[in-house]
Amino acid sequence: MKKIITTVKIVIALLCLFHLSAWCQPGNDKLKDVVSKLKTFSTNHIIEKAYLHFDKPYYAAGDTIYFKAYLTAGERHLLSNLSGVLYADLINTNNKIDKSIKLQVINGVAWGDFALPDSLPKGNYRVRAYTNWMRNDGDGNYFDQTFMVGSSLDSKVPEAGTPHINSVNARPDLQFFPEGGSLVTGISSKIAFKAIGPNGLGIDVGGIVEDSEGNEITKFTTAHLGMGYFYLKPETGKTYRAKITYADGEQDVVNIPQAASSGIVLKINNDSLDKAPLQIIANENYFAENHDSAISLLVYSGGIATMITTKLDSLVINLAILKRHLHSGITKVTLFSSAGEPLSERLIFIQNYDQLNLSVNTDKTVYSKREKVQVGINALNRADSAATGHFSVSVIDESKVQVDENSENTIYNYLLLTSELKGYIEQPNYYFANITDKTKADLDLVMLTHGYRRFEWKQLLNNAYPPVAYQPESTLEITGIAESLGGKPLVNATVSLITMHGGQFQSAHTDDKGRFRFSDLVFSDTAKFVLQAVDAKGGNYTKLVYDKERPEPVVTSEASFQKDTVVQLMSAYMENNKKHQDEIAQYGGIKGKMLKTVIINGKKPEENPHHNLVSPQFADQIIHPDEMAKGGPFSVRIEGLLHGAHIVTGGAPGSGAHAYLSGSRVPMMVILDGSKTDGDLNELTGLDVESVEVLKTLAATAIYNAPYGVLIINTRSGLQAEDVASIGVLPISPKGFYIAREFYSPKYDQTNLTNNRPDLRSTIFWKPELVTDKDGNASFEYYNADGTGSYRIVVEGIDDKGNIGRQVYRYKVE
User: Is residue 670 within 8 Å of residue 711, measured between CB atoms?
Assistant: First the structure.
């Protein structure tokens, strides 16, 4: 399999990154080693992310979840050409996979859906998506989003604000995070904190900080979602604690991390738009021990590492990072000693407004019910040049589906924020929906209170990251082992892969361990094949072992955090849903009922009660008893029913009757209840027939080594004769690519604009793939439903340079 690798650029000592001039020394071997290991890690551990855009934020039993997947590779969010297979799982309230599908990724995008049965209990469900390559980093790198699903069945939805699981802690939790990583005596430091309730969500707290002598040092209170900060200058020989008062009046005491007697701290002010002033501050003990020693700053942004080295020739060193040289998203700034030891670290979030400028325009601003809506979009990059990219569009009726915009998971906040950090980020879109000084300050608290998940210096510098165990999958594969009947691997045997319909096949040779591999395959999840093998001498006395699907990754327990507002919006959605069902009942529908999901299960070959080698699902034709003539010779009973075959009866008495494929002079093989007969159909007269199966294609008949066709006759008595040995052939039904269903969008004209049947759609329109042209333009059209009020259009996507875009547009329906 071809492996596509994107090299991450490592740049040494680019002084243009810094606003204030600082003199630079050549890096020593230790610092060169840091950069080299970072480069190796970035090259060998290319980050791949999957983001899923859904048609709406919650669903009801009987709905269909529609989604578009964007797969990116590298830290510049380029659409991935690394993996061509994406797995998507629907996980139920018991953390079990209800359904799993494979999607073919082309040009970094794919789309699919999950139909929710109307029998589904209400509760918190999840959609998980990942590639085989992502499994190298564990499930922390998977896309995983929780949805509320409403239903008339027994509730499994937790109370508002209560997580579905992991609610073990009965008390709130408060943690302190000194800027730079640690407190140092004699240095005033910013200390961020985060208070989390038993439900996993941020809670309001207030309190005071006391020293070990009982003196009050400062007060503090939360600023946003349980987060806040205060300043503390630790003194030598003293410890500190926080006396906390929660919103419900409960009180607690928590110790503040102890300060080091000798140390150095990195501080960054990220308030201004163009630059981020920083300070490197050493206390007197550390300065005395390390005077004039080399220290280095490494700035890691968008996959590019920039290092500057200077001397510790004063207690305070002032610099400023120019933000225009950084990429939007999280920047990691680390201070290193001359020995290559990380001393202090700070995360900052860069908002350079370099996302795509997406404009959405409709031909009108106010529409009527069922009126056609024509929409155009235009995508421009930061330089106002046309952007060619892939986009997806969702239109919802906001009178039926209300959205908590702060809690939305969007392509922007997922790729740049939540997928980069450890821990749960509450209300991620709050920081991007309407950017203000307040939201930027609150986002900086997120940087101070959440760890970075991409890499840890200790593991990286010690080469402690596990080796790559999973390779990217570009297409589908079918693999296995060919053995002798005695179980010995066959070397240089020929294995053929034959399709059940059409007889197309490929051949492959086994290696020295008897393994075979068919690569670069593309087929749907309904495809059926036959594997056939002959040894190096052409003998077919072989046994085939097929490598079935590898097990899905373990489903970990995830807390399903739901705010009161989300639960309330879901309740309103279900009230509308019930009203719609009542309206449908007035027009011939069934009140309270939705269309059921019908599941058709074919018998597996090994479950066949007649011991046939081929399951009925592989037959080209099946004849049932009610189609056959009553009484008389068996050949007469099925005469005229065979497709592409006919019956020939001998002229002389006792010469028998045989079935032939059209154009063939060799009789078809006859299998009776799993056993081969001599083919005389009239000897079967009087049997209580259950079914007659006709095999005509090469793939099906190869199982019986009967190229001229097979007639399988099954009786209700199921005669137990000697089984026909399965030699050299194996029918398989591997899991192929899921074929997404098309979203239904009605088209109205003058004849049906006024029909009485209500149009009750909540998702008005869904288009998973929309590609802009060379001028950055694309367009689409659809018809409104019967709902009035505000309709919400959401467009998301990525261009071919990795620039991210999202736009929300509303219009009125009266």
Answer: yes
